[in-house]
Design goal:
The structure holds three protein chains of three kinds.
Chain A lengths: L3 E12 L2 E12 L3 E5 L6 H8 L7 E6 L2 E2 L8 H4 L1 E3 L12 H8 L8 H5 L3 H20 L15 H13 L5 E5 L7 H18 L2 E5 L3 H7 L2 E6 L2 E6 L1 H5 L2 H8 L2 H5 L1
Helix pairs in contact in A: 3-6, 7-8
Chain B lengths: L1 H12 L1 H20 L1 H4 L3 H26 L7 H18 L4 H25 L2 H21 L1 H6 L3 H8 L1 H8 L9 H24 L2 H11 L1 H6 L4 H27 L11 H14 L4 H17 L1 H11 L6 H16 L3 H14 L19 H8 L3
Helix pairs in contact in B: 4-11, 4-12, 4-14, 4-15, 4-16, 5-6, 5-7, 5-14, 6-14, 9-10, 10-11, 11-14, 12-14, 15-16, 15-18, 15-19, 16-19
Chain C lengths: L1 H23 L5 H32 L6 H20 L10 E2 L1 H27 L7 H23 L8 E2 H5 L2 E5 L2 E5 L1 H23 L1 H11 L1 H6 L4 H27 L7 H14 L4 H17 L6 H18 L14
Parallel strand pairs in C: 1-2
Antiparallel strand pairs in C: 3-4
Classes of the chains: A alpha/beta, B mainly alpha, C mainly alpha.
Chain lengths: ~260, ~375, ~350
């Protein structure tokens, strides 16, 4: 049986007077592809931000790989093995694709400031190794040809791929994908589904994604959690969720009004 | 216009024209600054060159903070001053040899930079500018009106003789003993120190540390997600830039040979000069800092004739005339050359190379997501 | 335990204060205290006006105006020239010590018109194009403008110290308070400074609170997009804000010039202390600017008076750093919670 990798225990997130998330729990097992869905504003990205510790949940705990994530600092999260992409691609716009990927490996590279300043061999070989790894990942994602191009010039679709590569390059145990299919047409979404599955298999990484595109979600997610107004309203396999009345109501609103 | 540029571009691409041109450029520049001064020029030229070197070192350090990491500091004049005074104190009062004094000045600069960086953790943008500005204004007053520092320089000749070029010559540039042109030897010493600093800077720029700095500038959010400890790196950036300023201050002190705390103003005006150098030259680039510094050092020379003319016309001396040009340069650069001269040169080079002429993707192809067929097929095998 | 510490600090603090007083060689009696308070309020009123200018610009354009000192100085020089013309001053002769009401008022009006136009031009030509630019650009533009004005002023009016005139009515109005067999004299200058400072602060307060334009400006400062949607002409109002800010600087300059004599560097010190006042009061609060300015004036004259010169000049910096470290929003600024 697969072991639990991520466990969110009854978290609550309040901003000033607004309760964005209340009493939310979920579990992600190793090797799964899990989806977090819900209407706009339900709090999905807030959950992500709690996991990646941009926020500290006002109540509850998040346990990752046996460790209490809620006690960690934001920049420790990736060291523990959680990488993420962002809804509105947060690439480093002044840099090239390669430099972005090198930064993705920031925590894997051990050289100190002094080694860097003196351009010691240790610093340079570390860069070389990281460049190699970056090229491998770029190759895997079929974007190797963009390696030295500035990211600002790339089309949106390619930028999203770069972000995914940047998340992968740190060799994470868990990867959080924030709306990976946003802005893609159905054809692209298909390919994306295939890619995510491939990544999960090839890199042994667990995937948790937030998504609006139901075709992607239904296609690859093994487990779904549904949020509405910050509360969990359903969980289960995609097939169950599809026919869950609470979920339908959340997405489509109250049917009775429509009929009248 | 396009035709001409095409012609030039085609010409330059021919290997027997382009490469030699590049070679000539790469050789003449270092020669100009290193060898020629031995045979041509006078003390005045050497002092200008020295000023250029000193300002360059400061500017490179500041560029690390402002250009690379994206933070503002109006307070580096104070670090510069502390570096100078520290070195002066060590040489005059403790008779430490100059090179050790420089290293210690670097450390002092680094520490003060670190101190200045602490507010940076909590403040951003304008507030940080105000805080560093306050620092820049307070320090020179403090230094010049504080009895301990005046004591240090009771005998203005003290410093010159102790530090003096004679000593430097003998210890570090024995090959120039025969020249007896003190300013020249001093210039070469500065050049050596500056080269070391530039190499360190290049090391930082291109490495993991430099990338972390740029990440903070581009997106603190993403930087954190990549594991960059924002606070630590911000303070580090301040500290490193302080080291450069400290070293430059130590050099400046040797250049002047005497420090009278009352005369010298390491005030907000100097900080503005440093910022102007990197804005003019190019934020975030080492060559930019050097170019900007050079231009600002030459500026007073360039307007000298204008100044004398005006002086004759109005019959009285004109003070602060350079300020008019500094101010204009700063404003014009912000509007028309946000990436400085170096940035403009880079754009020019890119344009000539044809970057941006080819479309990124083939518009005739349907998709934007370049995922290979193998990957898709493998996934389709049902996993 | 904490009682012990407090007691110790009180002791140590007391000892420190005693040392400072003793070192300074200046007395601490009612008369001196009175004089310092009067000075503090006088200069504080001037700092309040400049701080208002800084905060107004910060609230409306989100820019810290580092050219404050030079802009105020330049406007004051314009007043100087106007006065020179009206009085018929020739060559290098100084201005007469006092000037009649008619001429003085004319000069002030001319100065205010100039200041207003300057503000308008700065906003329109320099700042509006940069509204989307990074903070560094905006900061550098105000700095650059300041440096430029400094150079031009030195060129036009030379860099020496010139005496500045006062209104004759003001000069003759003196109040003397008898304390302990000595006099605390409050000169007409001081009275005017305090009165004008108070008057303008009140005027602006009423303007922002009760007039339509003022309310629109407040809305704009809080949320420019929504304000635009509600029909507020943000561009026009931002220009107006700068006009007011420049006029405040001009008045402050004219008020302070007789005391410290006119020169291109004249307002440098004033500006630094005013910055401290603005920070102390909270960069987002106009009331705070006034309060902060007054407080800094008093602190500088009550505490700084006894400090050796070197330390006194660091007071402003210390205030800035302490406030920004422990309470970045100052005494009265609002805490803004960022939502990611």
């Amino acid at each position: 049986m697969s072991e639990t990798l991520l466990e969110i225990q009854n978290i609550e997130m309040t901003f000033g007077g607004l309760k964005a998330i209340s009493d939310f729990s979920m579990t992600v097992k190793k090797g799964q592809i899990v989806g977090l869905i819900g209407p706009n504003g339900a709090g999905k990205t807030t959950v992500f931000n709690c996991i990646s510790r941009f926020y500290k949940p006002t109540k509850g705990r998040i346990v990752f790989d046996g460790q209490d994530l809620t006690a960690k600092r934001t920049d420790d999260v990736i060291k523990m093995g959680v990488a993420r992409t962002f809804q509105n691609v947060e690439l480093f716009k002044s840099m090239t694709v390669m430099e972005n990927l090198l930064l993705g490996q920031h925590t894997r590279m051990r050289n100190t400031v002094i080694e860097d300043a003196l351009s010691l061999p240790s610093s340079r070989s570390s860069d070389k190794k990281s460049t190699q790894r970056a090229l491998e990942i770029l190759q895997e994602l079929s974007i190797k040809q963009y390696a030295n191009k500035p990211v600002a010039m790339l089309p949106f679709g390619v930028q999203k791929m770069v972000e995914m590569a940047r998340a992968l390059v740190s060799n994470p145990k868990l990867i959080l994908l924030d709306e990976p299919a946003a802005g893609s047409n159905p054809n692209e979404t298909n390919k994306l589904s295939a890619l995510i599955k491939h990544i999960r298999n090839a890199y042994n990484v667990t995937v948790l994604l937030v998504e609006h595109d139901m075709s992607l979600v239904m296609d690859i997610c093994e487990q779904l959690y549904v949020l509405d107004f910050g509360k969990k309203i359903a969980e289960g396999a995609p097939a169950e969720i599809q026919s869950n009345p609470a979920v339908i109501e959340a997405y489509l609103g109250d049917n009775e009004e429509v009929l009248d | 216009m396009n035709k001409i540029s095409n012609i030039i571009y085609d010409l330059l691409r021919k290997p027997y024209i382009g490469l030699p041109l590049l070679g000539i450029f790469l050789i003449t520049l270092p020669v100009t600054i290193t060898v020629i001064p031995m045979f041509q020029g006078n003390n005045y030229t050497y002092s200008l060159l020295s000023q250029w070197v000193i300002l360059s070192v400061t500017a490179i350090g500041l560029n690390l903070l402002v250009g690379l990491t994206g933070m503002i500091s109006l307070g580096h004049s104070a670090i510069f001053a502390f570096g100078g005074y520290a070195a002066a104190y060590l040489v005059v009062k403790i008779s430490l040899p100059y090179p050790i004094a420089i290293v210690l000045a670097a450390i002092v600069g680094g520490l003060i930079g670190l101190l200045l960086g602490l507010p940076a953790l909590k403040l951003s943008g304008s507030y940080l500018a105000v805080a560093t500005f306050g620092f820049a204004v307070a320090v020179p007053e403090f230094l010049s009106l504080n009895p301990q520092f005046n004591d240090l320089f009771n005998d203005p000749n003290d410093l010159a003789t102790k530090l003096g070029v004679v000593k430097v010559e003998k210890q570090y540039l024995p090959i120039f003993e025969f020249t007896k042109r003190d300013d020249l030897s001093r210039y070469y010493l500065f050049l050596i120190i500056a080269t070391v600093m530039v190499l360190l800077a290049i090391g930082l720029w291109r490495s993991r540390t430099g990338r972390a700095f740029r990440a903070i500038r581009d997106s603190e959010t993403a930087a954190q997600a990549m594991g960059v400890h924002i606070g630590r790196y911000k303070v580090l950036a301040f500290s490193l830039s302080g080291i450069f300023a400290g070293v430059a201050g130590a050099m400046y002190m040797a250049q002047i040979g005497q420090l009278d705390a009352k005369d010298l103003q390491f005030g907000a005006a100097e900080s503005i000069l440093f910022l102007a150098a990197i804005i003019l030259g190019g934020l975030g680039s080492i060559p930019g800092a050097i170019i900007g510094s050079g231009l600002l050092v030459i500026l007073p020379e360039l307007i000298k004739s204008l100044k004398t003319q005006l002086r004759e016309m109005t019959g009285s001396s004109i003070e602060n005339f350079e300020s008019i040009f500094y101010g204009l340069i700063i404003i014009l650069c912000v509007f028309y050359m946000p990436n400085g001269i170096f940035g403009a040169l880079k754009k020019l080079a890119e344009w000539m190379r044809g970057v941006g002429r080819e479309p990124m993707l083939d518009p005739t192809k349907e998709n934007n997501l370049p995922i290979s067929e193998e990957v898709i097929n493998e996934a389709r095998k049902g996993v | 335990m904490s009682a012990l510490i407090t007691a110790y600090l009180a002791d140590a603090g007391g000892a420190a204060v005693a040392t400072i007083l003793a070192d300074s060689g200046k007395g601490f009696d009612l008369v001196t205290l009175g004089r310092n308070i009067v000075n503090g309020l006088t200069f504080g009123s001037i700092y309040a006006l400049v701080a208002l200018s800084i905060v107004l610009i910060y609230k409306s354009s989100d820019v810290v105006n580092f050219g404050t000192a030079e802009m105020g100085m330049f406007a004051t020089f314009v007043c100087f020239s106007s006065l020179s013309v009206l009085v018929g001053r020739v060559g290098n002769n100084p201005l007469p010590e006092t000037i009649g009401l008619g001429n003085y008022l004319l000069a002030i009006v001319a100065t205010l018109v100039f200041a207003g136009l300057l503000g308008l031009m700065i906003e329109r030509i320099l700042l509006r194009p940069l509204s989307k630019a990074p903070v560094l650009s905006q900061v550098m533009v105000t700095i650059g403008l300041g440096v430029f004005l400094f150079g031009i002023a030195s060129f036009i009016w030379k860099a020496d110290n010139k005496p500045f005139s006062e209104l004759d009515a003001v000069k003759s109005a003196n109040i003397r308070i008898n304390v302990d067999n000595a006099f605390i004299s409050i000169t007409g200058e001081m009275i005017t400074a305090m009165l004008i400072g108070a008057f303008l602060s009140l005027l602006l307060y009423l303007f922002f609170k009760f007039t339509l334009v003022g309310t629109a400006m407040r809305a704009m400062a809080q949320n420019p997009t929504t304000a635009k949607l509600m029909g507020v002409n943000v561009g026009f109002l931002t220009g107006l804000t700068w006009m007011i800010a420049m006029m405040l600087l001009a008045i402050a300059g004219v008020l302070v010039a007789p005391k410290i004599s006119l020169s291109p560097l004249m307002m440098a010190n004033v500006a630094v202390l005013s910055f401290a006042g603005a920070v102390l009061g909270g960069m987002t609060s106009l009331v705070g600017a006034v309060v902060g300015g007054l407080l800094v004036g008093i602190i500088d004259n009550l505490v700084g008076f006894y400090l050796p010169d070197g330390l006194r000049s660091m007071l402003a910096f210390l205030i800035i750093v302490v406030v920004l470290t422990f309470r970045p929003n100052g005494l009265l600024g609002k805490v803004v919670r960022k939502k990611v």
